[in-house]
Design brief:
The active site is at residue 272. One of its GO terms (molecular function) is polygalacturonase activity. This is Glycoside hydrolase family 28. The protein has 416 residues and is mainly β. It folds into 2 domains: 38-197, Single-stranded right-handed beta-helix, Pectin lyase-like (Pectate Lyase C-like, 3 Solenoid); 221-227 and 238-416, 3 Solenoid (Pectate Lyase C-like). The protein is 9% helix and 42% strand. The protein has a 19-stranded parallel sheet that branches. A 6-stranded parallel sheet has the order 21-23-25-27-29-31, with no helix packed on it. The longest helix has 24 residues, at 2-25. Bound molecules: 2-acetamido-2-deoxy-beta-D-glucopyranose (2 copies).
């Protein structure tokens, strides 16, 4: 009898240890605290005209660990590269504008500012590549000028005319900030607006902190994702406000897995929501989204893939989330972009929803591919609005949820 009890206690303890071990790992493994602005190596005042050369020269000669400060006024510039260890600091009141001249960004094929079948003809406005310890700081603004008329064209980056050929509809426009093959990169407090394409994207970057930034771009702009960690690990996105025309945050894995990602205490306005996928071929895991309010996004918590992209998405925890005016509050979809198919098998499992509250009606979708590999999710303390629609196919949902949400405002959704 005694033996048996000890055994079951041991088992319980083992389960608890296992669960808490997993809970501990489902996040950025670093200890992340609020960043501090680096000391400055040079301080620039805006003059007029194209200031690319001045800013780039200051960045190139800045000592590691320090920042080039744009102190006041409006700076206009073409593409910039932030060297390893160096940062850019845009002061409160200063604005850095990306000149809307496609020739400055063209990668050589003279396609930047046009549509074609691939859409990779432009370099980004700001590039961080192979860097360690670089960043972008300050309470100023970086404006991608997506809505301004392009030099030598009649339209803006956002309104490049249709080509008339359905196979050539990819816009060649710059991303605002692209960070590749880097480590220990920080974005702090800066406001980003009007990117022609994605605002921030990383590739194979381990150690990435996005803290207290604002993204404020019209909901009508296409493909203007907020922050997209791709094939990156140890990522924290905290205390940000993101309103834009596409995914507010999208975790992707096109060339490497994305794992250990914490999305903490953020607010999303317009946009397509908190996404994982659809390009998640290398897998996404150990992701925690906690303290999120969404007001007026089209989707809320979304995981998307298809048989063309495949990918295993596992160990994802959503905690303390509150939504209002969201059409699809939860959408786990393995048939994203219905016509995009291939031979891969996406898998979504070990997905947990804890303390999720949705104050307005919406459609909840759990659309798996087969009963042999259903979508597996657990609901705990999930309160939705009466009259919502629930669509499940090849999904195994456990736990409980109730149509008992009341109230009209989200407050801080348990944000700390
Ligand atoms: C993530 O951070 C932890 C803790 O600092 C570190 O041990 C690990 O190597 C990091 N992972 C990557 C891929 O850099
Ligand atoms: C950065 O990574 C992206 C995505 O992998 C890639 O498309 C782009 O060409 C890379 N840029 C550079 C400068 O390596």
């Amino acid at each position: 009898m005694k033996m048996k009890m000890q055994f079951s206690v041991l088992c319980t303890a083992a389960v608890v240890v296992f669960l808490s071990l997993h809970a501990v790992q489902a996040k950025d493994l670093r200890t992340v605290t609020e960043p501090k602005n680096p000391a400055t190596c040079a301080s620039l005042k805006a003059t007029s005209g194209d200031e690319s050369k001045t800013i780039q020269a200051a960045l190139n000669s800045c000592a590691k660990g320090k920042a080039v400060e744009l102190s006041s006024g409006t700076f206009s510039s073409g593409p910039l590269t932030i060297p390893s260890g160096v940062s850019l600091l845009v002061n409160k009141g200063a604005v850095l504008k990306a000149l809307p001249n496609p020739a400055l960004y063209d990668l050589g094929a003279k396609t930047c500012g046009t549509r074609d079948d691939v859409g990779v003809g432009c370099k980004p406005f700001i590039t961080i590549h192979g860097a360690t310890g670089s960043g972008i700081y300050g309470q100023g603004i970086i404006d991608g000028q997506g809505g301004e008329t392009m030099t030598g064209h009649k339209e803006s980056w956002w309104k490049i005319p249709e080509s008339g050929d359905s196979a050539k509809e990819n816009q060649n426009v710059p991303r605002l900030i692209q960070i590749n093959d880097s480590a220990d990169i920080t974005l702090y407090q800066i406001t980003l607006k009007n990117s022609p394409l994605y605002h921030v994207a990383t590739s194979k970057t381990n150690g990435f902190t996005v803290w207290g930034i604002t993204i404020d771009t019209p909901s009508s702009s296409h493909n203007t994702d907020g922050v997209d960690p791709m094939g990156s690990q140890n990522v924290t996105i905290a205390h940000c406000r993101i309103s834009t025309g596409d995914d507010n945050v999208a975790i992707k894995a096109i060339t490497a897995p994305s794992r250990h990602i914490s999305v903490l205490n953020n607010h999303f306005g317009a946009g397509h929501g908190m996404s994982i996928g659809s390009e998640i071929t290398y897998g996404g895991s150990d992701i925690t989204v906690s303290g999120l309010t969404l007001d007026g996004t089209t989707n809320g918590l979304r995981i998307k893939s298809n048989t063309f992209r495949g990918g295993l998405v596992s160990g994802v925890t959503y905690t303390n989330v509150c939504m209002r005016n969201v059409e699809h509050p939860i959408i786990l979809d393995m048939e994203y972009g219905h016509h995009v198919t291939g031979n891969l098998t996406p898998e979504f499992r070990d997905i947990a929803f804890n303390n999720v509250k949705v104050l307005t009606t919406g459609t909840y979708t759990f659309d798996g591919l087969s009963d042999s590999r259903p979508i597996q999710a657990t609901m705990n303390d999930v309160h939705i609005k009466k009259g919502s629609k629930w669509v499940t196919s090849h999904a195994k949902l456990s736990g409980t949820w109730a149509e008992d949400a009341t109230g009209t405002a989200c407050g801080n959704a348990g944000n700390v």
